[in-house]
Amino acid sequence: MSAQSPIDGLHFRKMHGAGNDFVVIDSRGRAGAVVTSALAKALGDRNRGVGFDQLAEIRDSDQADFALDFWNNDGTQAGACGNATRCVSDLVMRGLGRDAVSLVTARGGLSAVRLTDGRVSVNMGHPQRGWAEVPLAREVDVMHLPLPGDPVALGMGNPHCVIFVEDAEAVDLPALGPVYEHDPLFPQRTNVEFVSLTGTDRLRMRVWERGAGITLACGSGACAAAVAAHLRGLTGRHVLLDLDGGVLEIDWREDGVWMSGPVAHVFDGWLSPDYLAQNA
Fold first, then answer.
1. What is the structure's pLDDT at 233?
2. Active-site residue (options: 81, 87, 161, 223)
3. pLDDT in tens, 268-280
4. Are residues 237 and 267 in the same domain?
5. In 3D, which of 82, 93, 19, 30 has the Cα closest to residue 56?
6. For position 227, which CATH number holds?
7. Is residue 96 part of a domain?
8. Beta bridge partners of 108
9. 84 in Cβ contact with 104 (< 8 Å)
10. Which residue is catalytic, options 87, 161, 218, 223?
11. Is the pLDDT confidence value at 3 over 60?
12. Radius of gyration over alpha carbons of the chain, in Å?
């Protein structure tokens, strides 16, 4: 479907992966990207726009099948978004009639495949474990940050602060999430994951996302939580994570951290020319 309507509006899709919801705008074939910070922030408003956790813009790439840019609902850009990557990969695979695609994000080159049960799996790359890679403001032990709760810091394209707790359900996420997100130790802010061990290689995770707040799922956060759990000796390298919106499967392999889960295409719509002009 063309991104341009007869009345010069802009086509979009609404998708979600385990309740982590996205607006998807396809800019392939256009001269350049169409999404700006102002447009992303306006669209992210669930009362005055469409509403989303993240926005994903599909662009042409001469290095892969497609490229992806990500925006948070506060108008800031995100370096990675695993669930949106899975959703868009499913969309592109259907369009190409294939079960595997390659893509490029700010994280670098990634790959995605459709599994036999219909779920989509994406290789999110290797975890960034150095303090400067996360990034942190100064050199500290990333496995034991000097913050309440003894968190682990990891990068998965986005910075992550993983805090292991006895009961993730009991955490006051609206109160604590912003405190860690804006801690000076994280110069680019951070996603915050509260994680508890619920069984053998099974974790319960609740998440506060940088630039988005509470979300039902976070793919890069699930990857970070699984890696941190293994490094802390709590789990193996292949785990299931129960999030507010569903279950994600994480497998930390030699070639990277693979994340698998469901995808859903909810509806298509058009942004009116007036709306676009007001939020350029």
1. 98
2. 81
3. 999 999 999 999 8
4. no
5. 82
6. 3.10.310.10
7. yes
8. 105
9. no
10. 218
11. no
12. 18
